[in-house]
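haha ok so turns out i had the wrong file open the whole time. this is the CORRECT one, sorry everyone. sequence first:
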Amino acid sequence: MGEGALTIWIFGTSRLPSSARKPRKITGICRRILKEEKADKPGEINIVFLERAAMRALNKRYLGKTHDTDVIAFSYPADPSPLPGERPFGDIFISAYKARAQAAALGHPVLTEVLILVAHGILHLLGYDDSTPRQKSVMFKKQKRVVGC
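then structure:
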């Protein structure tokens, strides 16, 4: 990755139905949000799809919560990485189980739910929070606008 480059890595798509394994759409949503938020900066984003047990373990270990969750995002420190011209960004963990379940409950394709969850994770990496009704409303409006649903 050179200076000014953003690399987006996607892992675990085999946990999704084949109709939702669309890396170009996933990276496209990331880049669109980053551009709209004027945050397209060098670095690396890892998007990792996990099954239910692994996601619950992550939620418990790092957030102290024992329930299912759909997205967990971790920002990397703002300090430059040891390699010249590279800057870290963050990791987004998405529950493939919750993506499938929420898509079914909402009556839309799993790919749509995946894109919504990716958008949500990117917004968290950018510092958005959803712990209050007002914050949640702001995030959901941005997600909806970008994903188009």
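The first helix runs from residue 23 to 36.
again sry for the mixup
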